[in-house]
Amino acid sequence: MFRTQIMILFSLALFGCASTLDTPYKKAHIPPSKSSTYKTSPSVSTGQKSPATQRPYKIKGVQYTPIASATGFVQTGISSWYGKKFHGRKTSNGEIYNMHAMTAAHKTLPMNTWVSVHNLENNRKIVVRINDRGPFVYRRIIDLSYTGAKRIGIAGSGTAKVRVTALGRATSYSKKTKDPIAFKPVDYWKGNLTIQVGAFQIKANAEKYRYKLSKTYQNAHITTFTDDRGTFYRVRIGRFTNLKDAIRFSEKIIAQGFGSAFAVAE
Q: Which of 54, 209, 232, 253 is 20 to 30 A from 86, comparing alpha carbons?
């Protein structure tokens, strides 16, 4: 069984290495990968090609890097929704967007990941499948379909604070409703956890950031991750034994000015 892993994808815009995860741009969604507006970055060849939806891309000069795995992913932030304007158009993975289906857009989760979306303002929960990229609006972390937004109670207000929890890929479906009824099991609630606050492709920038953080936070360190896109130097701080405390800490430092932060098992 996989251990809990909640990942960050981008660092703060420090030392000129990366932009913040969320940006104050107008609402946008990435068209299918064949579109010229879907820009990918060069990757290191390992003999295997990533799906186009897994390659880094840019929106108005800001680069986003999809994560390799959604295992253990948890994120708290603002949810919005999109409807008629995009209904009938292609989503980022090539499907036709249906505003009445239970789907959603996310900037970095792998396509076809099922996630639980918990509205922290009214305690409603839904399960949706990621099939699009977005929203590219400051602090917003997920864009729900109209039906998803309606079921969770934000179709009227437009936005709400939510917690997104990755369930993984569905392993079985209801014959009657076709909805997923089982997912790859994930242990979210125990392990050796830390908080990832940055991911750099230039090691020197990661070292500078780690050193800066070490003056204020305990256990500031770097881990290395390599896939067909290249090598990433992940900067992490803190040490926790349960997810609840890790999430509280990540939310606290985001409120203090970090662009984004996530708990991750080590």
A: 54
Tell me how crowded residue 210 is: count the other CB atoms within 10 A of its CB: 21
- Over 50: is that where the pLDDT of 38 sits? no
Using CA atoms, how far residue 190 sits from 186, 187, 215, 238, in Å, is 11, 7, 28, 15
Q: Which of 50, 106, 57 is nearest to 78 (CA)?
A: 106
What is the signed CA dihedral for 133, 72, 56, 128, rounded to 10 degrees?
Answer: -10
pTM score over 0.70: no
- Say if CB 110 and CB 67 are below 8 A apart: yes
Identify the band that residue 41 occupies on the pLDDT scale cut at 50, 70 and 90. very low
Contacts for 158 with CB less than 8 Å, ≥ 6 apart: 80, 81
Burial of 20 (0-12, 13-18, 19+ CB in 10 A): middle
Dihedral sign from CA coordinates of 261, 23, 11, 208? negative
Q: H-helix or E-strand containing 189?
A: none
Best CA proximity match to 165, nearest among 106, 223, 121, 122: 106
Give the β-pairing of 103-105 and 125-132: parallel
